[in-house]
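Box 3.1 — From sequence to structure: Intercellular adhesion molecule 2
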Amino acid sequence: MSSFGFGTLTVALFALVCCSGSDEKAFEVHMRLEKLIVKPKESFEVNCSTTCNQPEVGGLETSLNKILLLKQTQWKHYLISNISHDTVLWCHFTCSGKQKSVSSNVSVYQPPRQVFLTLQPTWVAVGKSFTIECRVPAVEPLDSLTLSLLRGSETLHSQTFGKAAPALQELGMKFIQLCPRRGLAGTMPPSRPWCPAATHWSQGC
Ligand SMILES: *[C@@H]1O[C@H](CO)[C@@H](O)[C@H](O)[C@H]1NC(C)=O
Ligand SMILES: *[C@@H]1O[C@H](CO)[C@@H](O)[C@H](O)[C@H]1NC(C)=O
Ligand SMILES: *[C@@H]1O[C@H](CO)[C@@H](O)[C@H](O)[C@H]1NC(C)=O
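Predicted structure (token representation):
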């Protein structure tokens, strides 16, 4: 990971310019994460390390489930599991009574697996309006989500959600459309005074 590579370089340069013996005062703490973006319930590994030769205490702070897999004096390697929401992880070490920590944000990502479309009512008289509802369960992050209602390649309606509703399990939008006078091209004979049924819309949502 590039941030880890940078950290290693920093340590290497530091060793070149610094006099030996004073590393206890100017020690560094590093965190290496296997992943920064994970799916819900996914597990990932985290390595907390320090340049301090003899740290007194150190470890990983998190509200998530953690298991210490391996450790040596200057590092601890953990397995994090069952992540369900965006979180901040902290690695900390104390060296000669002085504590240092670094943090990293981990984001949970869940692309849409299913999209539901409902028409209410399913059949509408010419000239009456009807409601089209698109719903998508369990997607994250919400501020990356855009729900679009398409007819062919034409976007009828589009909605974003920001960070407004993190607790919702399911998001949706409603769109009210006036039933067209002649039915939609290719779906109904123009003479029939009804809008097309849901199946004609379902691919677009
Ligand atoms: C953890 O990081 C330290 C410092 O870079 C490294 O020496 C060690 O091998 C790593 N441990 C594991 C299990 O990857
Ligand atoms: C995993 O996380 C969910 C929600 O945060 C929780 O309800 C469940 O008990 C956790 N499972 C384990 C095995 O920790
Ligand atoms: C983590 O996210 C918070 C906002 O949620 C931000 O203020 C902070 O700078 C982020 N930290 C890192 C290390 O990216």
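Summary of the box: The chain has one helix and 13 strands.
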